[in-house]
Amino acid sequence: MAKGTSEPGADVPAGGFVQLLTPDGERVDSVTTDDGVTYSVDFTDDEYRELYRDLVTVRRLDAEATALQRQGELGIWASLLGQEAAQVGSGRALRPQDMAFPTYREHGVLYCRGIDPIMPFGLFRGVDQGGWDPNEFKFHTYTIVIGSQTLHATGYAMGITMDGKTGTPDGEAVIAYFGDGATSQGDVNEAFVWAGVFHAPMVFFCQNNQYAISEPLERQTRIPLYRRAAGYGFPGVRVDGNDVLATYAVTRAALDHARNGQGPTLIEAYTYRMGAHTSSDDPTRYRIASEVEAWQAKDPILRLRAFLTKQQLADDTYFAEVDDSAAKVALSLRERVLAMPDPQPVSMFDNAYPHGSPEVDVQRQQFAAYQASFEGSAH
Amino acid sequence: MMSETITLGKALNHGLRRALESDPKVVIMGEDVGKLGGVFRITDGLQKDFGEDRVIDTPLAESGIIGTAVGLAIRGYRPVCEIQFDGFVFPAFDQIVTQVAKMHYRSLGNIKVPMVIRIPYGGGIGAVEHHSESPEAYFAHTPGLKVVTCASPSDAYVMIQQAIASDDPVIFFEPKRRYWEKGPVELDAPLSGAYPLHASRLIRPGTHATVLAYGPMVKTALDAATAAAEDGRELEVIDLRTLSPLDLAPVFESVRRTGRCVVVHEAPGNVGLGAEIAARVTEECFYSLEAPVLRVSGYDIPYPAARVEEEYLPDLDRVLDAVDRTFGW
Ligand SMILES: Cc1ncc(C[n+]2csc(CCOP(=O)(O)OP(=O)(O)O)c2C)c(N)n1
């Protein structure tokens, strides 16, 4: 697909992808695709270092969550291990005015939105439905039904156009996250239709982590996913999803394209889910160890670290300090998760309706009275 | 007779296996049903033994699963579709209520769509949203669909085979939190002699009140009956098994004897199965009733966060409380 991208080899899918940092930590200056778009980044030394900190912190938080789940403190956890670069790169490319619509795995994007990392834990611990205010952080609620959010994102983006908040460099844009499996859903295909027809200012960000639970990519598609966009009338681009620089560059360009009134883009971030689908899954049933090992060599964090070292932008002291501070963030997360109280049972009646419901109100009172009837008994 | 004590999940697995063996037109399709054996392992080992053409891992698209199953059924196959969780049936809802339910009617009886849609449903497993719902009323409300649910391993084993053998499209609800409950199953009993698919069944005789339940609530109702017996109250428990059509004749007969009736289900009460049953029992048994038919159900709220689901789900105490109230009239 691209001039200037690496030739298809063991590391690169057929058709290539945009890569600005090789697995060995070599910088590629810029990449121009067949569409004539040139992708590059212009980070300061500090920004490179901060990206590294993001990646490490996000991975460390995820590891803590996995541990908490194993210890019975979370009902379930959807790990992002291996997908840090796709999430941090795209998440850091968002501007404050942009709106993000996640699935259930976008903890890294959530982190980049400046949301307290404890927020998704209520959902996975089973004490609430996810605790943040989507309006405040411009990061929508997690969505568990596969693909639903892509339509909401498209409608939101149509609203931006109707509000006249597009067509300038300071316009608003929307990003919708979903997986490779989700591309099979009717909703996602309908979102593509709508976004194309209405020229919506949005970016479809597909993290192709190669599996939908147990099913490999070939069970969802016969062509590379980014090429689907052509059929809906907007550009598609594939990016090395384990390269934080490339995911940043590609997402920023697509968002700018959208905010300038040039319509949607589909980004396929080609990556790999290193862990299980969720903590309930057993990946040894459907994938082999050598495949996982091959992807380990493309690790997003190791390659940025190699780059920083080679360029003498960071040394062991810096890396140790980052590890240390990530560990502190994770530790405090652990303490706070353990301290998360169970909800008051009667709170389950809250928020069913904005204006309440007389029937639910009666049920709430009956429930409270029923609960009270056990008080003091041996129940 | 070979009777084995196995879990409800394993019983379904055996039932599916036997259906695949006995009819080459039976195909299983769904997300992750192949190598993984389904997220609950209900189809475990079946792809290995019957091949990828009979146990088909589908793309991640529920409308696609049901819509293509309709085509396969028209073509002479007997698809058994797995919907991964209750809350994910809705992308397929359109196909189910507008197409599956109406094909036979619309084609003047010339087209049959003998398909089964398996849906693990209900709460109690500590899951996140969309993984604990009880959507049975939506389907029972749609003429043209048969809706059934099993509660014991032996019923699971037999009913899944009967559903597959039936020419009706069947929505087969599996009580997911009972997947791990064990019971005896006669693995080589002939299907022909089995208790009918579309019939409710009296499972515990009693004289003081009738308790109706189905799916995951059957165990709760039986537990309540055991507890009530200690206090000298004999509850008669009926497992409804079929939700559409309802088989209420045995229920009327029971309520005429006991004079009291409590219906239990996990789904919200508003416009739920319990409302229909209460109305019908009242119509038929009005002069025998000592008290109104009472319902014990989930509240009229979205299924709550896992840490409070035990308060949401009807339990033994709530059933006993309702029974008490029928005696207070
Ligand atoms: C409509 C719907 N069907 C099924 C599921 C169950 N499910 C949860 S995640 C998943 C796989 C999703 O794969 P993909 O879209 O590739 O995203 P990933 O989890 O790999 O990030 C499935 C089948 C669901 N959540 N929603």
TrEMBL record, chain A:
<dbReference type="GO" id="GO:0009083">
    <property type="term" value="P:branched-chain amino acid catabolic process"/>
</dbReference>
<feature type="domain" description="Dehydrogenase E1 component">
    <location>
        <begin position="56"/>
        <end position="328"/>
    </location>
</feature>
<dbReference type="GO" id="GO:0016624">
    <property type="term" value="F:oxidoreductase activity, acting on the aldehyde or oxo group of donors, disulfide as acceptor"/>
</dbReference>
<dbReference type="GO" id="GO:0000287">
    <property type="term" value="F:magnesium ion binding"/>
</dbReference>
<keyword id="KW-0560">Oxidoreductase</keyword>
<keyword id="KW-0786">Thiamine pyrophosphate</keyword>
<dbReference type="InterPro" id="IPR001017">
    <property type="entry name" value="DH_E1"/>
</dbReference>
<protein>
    <submittedName>
        <fullName>Pyruvate dehydrogenase E1 component alpha subunit</fullName>
    </submittedName>
</protein>
<keyword id="KW-0670">Pyruvate</keyword>
<dbReference type="InterPro" id="IPR017596">
    <property type="entry name" value="PdhA/BkdA"/>
</dbReference>
<dbReference type="InterPro" id="IPR029061">
    <property type="entry name" value="THDP-binding"/>
</dbReference>
<dbReference type="InterPro" id="IPR050771">
    <property type="entry name" value="Alpha-ketoacid_DH_E1_comp"/>
</dbReference>
<dbReference type="Pfam" id="PF00676">
    <property type="entry name" value="E1_dh"/>
</dbReference>
